[in-house]
Every structure is written in C-alpha cells, then in structure tokens.
Amino acid sequence: MQQIHIYPIGTPGQKWTQKEVQQWHESRNIQRSYKDEVLSKMDEINDSFERVQYGELDYSSGPYPLFGFKSKQWNSKNPTVLVTGGVHGYETSGVQGALLFLKETASQYQSDFNFIIAPCVSPWGYEIINRWNPKAIDPNRSFVENSPAPESALVMQFVKDLGVEIFAHIDLHETTDSDEEEFRPALAARDGLECFEGSIPDGFYTVGDTENPCEEMQTAIIASVEKVTHIAPADPDGTIIGSKVVQHGVINYPLEKLGLCAGFSKAKYTTTTEVYPDSAKATVEECNRAQVAAITGMLDYLKEL
C-alpha cells in the first residue's frame, strides 16, 4: 500500500491561501551563494561570448541580476542553439553544467552554431535550494503568455528580444531524492491534493516533446551521456516517473502544453535533461559532465543533419 505524505504547512485537502504561501516563504533559508557559486564563474567565461544582463529579480534576499550569454561573432547563416539551466534553481548540475559548457566546450562549436545560454534562470531557487520562487510558483510550469513567474517571463523576453529563430533548445534539469521527500509533497499540499509515495529513477534520462519527439536526437544524447554516467532504467511497469519509456532513457511530455521551458522557444529540436545527483554511482563532477555530454551529444547530431 502506498504511503501518503503529509506536508507540515497547510490543512490537508485545502489549497493554500496567501497565508500558507507566506508561511512557506518564511520557512525557507539561504543555503548557498549565487554570487560565489554562479556569478563568480561567469567571470571565467572567455571573450568569444557576450555577457548580457537581461533582468533582475527584486526579492527580499536579493536583488538577483540575471545574465545570459550569446555568441559574440554571430553568423546569420548558422543555426541558433538555446541552452537553459537552473529553471529549477535547486537542480545544481543544470547551472554548473551550463557554465562548464560555456567555459570549456562551447567555443569548439562556434563555427557551426550561434549560442544563447542562460545558465541560472532561478537564482533565488539556487540559493534556497528549492523548486519554486518566493510566491510558491514553479517557473517550469510558467513558460506561458503573461507568465506568473518573473524568472520565466524575463528569460522568454530575453530570447524574444534577440529576434532570432531557435533551431534547437536543450533545458538542463535534475531529478533528486528531494523531489519525493519535499517538492512533490509541497506541491500536493499547495494544491489541496493527496500525495502518494512514488519512485526516483537512478540515472540520467531525457524528456522529449510528445508533439515533436526528435527520437534520433534523443538517442544521440543518451549515447553521449552514457560515456560519462549511467542511464536510468525503466521501472517494472515500463515507465520513468510514471511516464512510458519510449526508448532507452527517454520519456515524452507535451512541453508547450505544460508550460515547460523547452517548449517556449518553439525550436525544431528540443529536449530536457534529467540527471540524478543522489546516486551512489555518480559524483558531482560526473553530473556536471553529464550535462555537458548531453549538450555535445545534441550538437554532434545536429552537425550531421
């Protein structure tokens, strides 16, 4: 029998009001530094990329300046690739992997692609180590018109203002033990629902778009990542986090319908990565490198089209 999780904030079965949202917000604490762990690393990016401040989040523990990078030598004949990380700020390797790619690898592909890279979309979430923003809104369900999450709205505007067609978009994420321990129970409590015990996949997987799954590209990404870390097996029912496994290490979601980041760009090729940092089989460095391998796996595939 599945265990029901009870969250310590709110009344079971009742949606949160502003009172519970405020109670939740006040219970959050800063656990690490966006300035020290993210902004300082941006200073190490080589000058082949232009650093652009595209906004600022004016939160009580902030302000949080938001930065993206774009290829300085822009070639209008090259396809444009968008890389986003830290939409869920607590998913560390998404942020650090994007920065690592910028620092060490991206320049190797600049003759073939233009890049737009937003390494840390949700810096408050990064510092608090949380999925939501201070208003208990999930940025990765908020990539919609008139978005309720400024994190989502600002990065969408940044990309829109560049006025270019996005050929491919990879959004870097993690699935962690805290999803089951904290974030799913919190979501159910916020929405007045029951939360039943689930499972966390041990390994890397990707989420393609139900409407445009890009099967061959997903295969190439899995093959690239498999050189760095292990791929999540399907559960006994043939699913990963409740979704049907369509090929080794790949599931699909309707990205745009759900307001997910990888769907807003309307790119021809899209994917979302999911790394498992709590695995006994993977180190922090391997998780960061897995994100880089996912990006390069995608790029190597696209180069051959």
TrEMBL record:
<dbReference type="GO" id="GO:0006508">
    <property type="term" value="P:proteolysis"/>
</dbReference>
<comment type="similarity">
    <text>Belongs to the peptidase M14 family.</text>
</comment>
<feature type="domain" description="Peptidase M14">
    <location>
        <begin position="30"/>
        <end position="305"/>
    </location>
</feature>
<dbReference type="GO" id="GO:0004181">
    <property type="term" value="F:metallocarboxypeptidase activity"/>
</dbReference>
<dbReference type="Pfam" id="PF00246">
    <property type="entry name" value="Peptidase_M14"/>
</dbReference>
<dbReference type="GO" id="GO:0008270">
    <property type="term" value="F:zinc ion binding"/>
</dbReference>
<dbReference type="InterPro" id="IPR000834">
    <property type="entry name" value="Peptidase_M14"/>
</dbReference>
<protein>
    <submittedName>
        <fullName>Peptidase</fullName>
    </submittedName>
</protein>
